[in-house]
Amino acid sequence: MSPESKKLFNIIILGVAFMFMFTAFQTCGNVAQTVIRSLNRTDFHGSGYTSMAIIYGVFSASNLITPSVVAIVGPQLSMFASGLFYSMYIAVFIQPFPWSFYTASVFIGIAAAESDRRTVFIALTVISLVGTVLFFLIRKPDSENVLGEDESSDDQDMEVNESAQNNLTKAVDAFKKSFKLCVTKEMLLLSITTAYTGLELTFFSGVYGTCIGATNKFGAEEKSLIGLSGIFIGIGEILGGSLFGLLSKNNRFGRNPVVLLGILVHFIAFYLIFLNMPGDAPIAPVKGTDSSAYIKSSKEVAILCSFLLGLGDSCFNTQLLSILGFLYSEDSAPAFAIFKFVQSICAAVAFFYSNYLLLHWQLLLMVIFGFFGTISFFTVEWEAAAFVARGSDYRSI
After folding, report:
1. pLDDT means per 10 residues in the chain (397 residues)?
2. Inter-residue contact 261 to 315 (CB < 8 Å)
């Protein structure tokens, strides 16, 4: 197999593996609070919000050390171990206990009826394990240096040792650069935008589905609407990611219009959710809530908001990744580590306060962070455009 074919093969395997693994995990996260809330009528007592807060809290801290871990054990084993932890978290739902539920949530960061619930989560666990095993199909690239007749095995051992030392040095350097990047003006401004993506990630991936499932006004179909909501969030993500990802290659107007569209779409979704959902839906008891919203709760509006949440999220994420890759093309690993760190810690905080705050307060927090996050993104994008117009390299460190 040629090197190009091997790269393509690895990309396909990675895509399929992550598709299986995160299909299972995201589905699990979307229904976690609803499932756990129904189990609280038994001897089990826990919170899906708290579980997800632990996951993203540990994940945020892990972003600072994972480059060093990958440099030592390699990417293939790192991804396989992470996949096992994801599968373990999903498997806990088959027969959950509070200690195992929250312990599995920690490892994840580092990496209906009773019978129906077991069947669903057994299937999700199998799907996640299939994706995890696929990592072993990844083929290592051919070594550039082939042992020849004039090269001794001792020389080869020295090269291997030097390579290991170089990997460790690179990991340490990336760790140091991450801290230096944290205090640059551009990264501080973009951190506000990133913080907003963490808050809205929490909302659409865990809180909104719980609100739909807790609204008794939707009738007997309230629980089935959670899955439909997740589907339409995915449709919005796919449409926005493909559309704005392609447009960014030939976009003469820059990234700001896409971010502006994203915040407007989100504001519309937040306003409709505010009108359509009861205020106590995020923290409703096991039996749900019979409280009335400002308008008659509509299934169609709820699903439309799901689509808008996914579409708006794709606007922000595509443009944030684009501007980070542009600004820090020579320091991409530390820059993206900071991006995931800020996003994850804000998601963890949001999952934690979701246990206590009513819906309108959660929406208000997202509106505030969304507004200032958009302004800060505009500021960085205008400065980047000014440097490009002058033909200068945009570097802050």
Report:
1. 78 83 74 64 59 70 67 75 77 61 53 52 72 77 50 52 61 70 86 95 88 86 79 90 71 82 96 95 86 92 95 92 83 77 89 91 96 95 73 45
2. yes
Give the tokens for residue 34: 């609803």
Cα separations (Å) of 365 from 188, 211, 342? 19, 17, 16
Rounded Cα distance, 292 and 280, in Å: 10
Cβ atoms of 311 and 237 within 8 Å: the answer is: yes
3-state secondary structure of 20: helix
Strands (E), 1-88: none
Q: Are 303 and 231 in contact (CB under 8 A)?
A: no
SS3 289: strand
Residue of 145, 138, 140, 371 whose CA lies nearest to 259: 371
HSE, CB side, 13 Å, CA atoms: give it for residue 61. Answer: 11
Degrees to nearest 5, angle at CA 339 with 267 and 92: 85
Token pair for 178: 């991450």
Prediction pTM value: 0.74
> What's the CA gap between 285 and 24, in Å, rounded?
26
* DSSP string for residues in 223-253: THHHHHHHHHHHHHHHHHHHHHHHHGGG-TT
- Domain spans of the chain? 1-102+111-138, 190-391
Q: What fold characterizes domain 190-391?
A: Growth Hormone; Chain: A; (1.20.1250)
Q: Which amino acid is at 372?
A: F
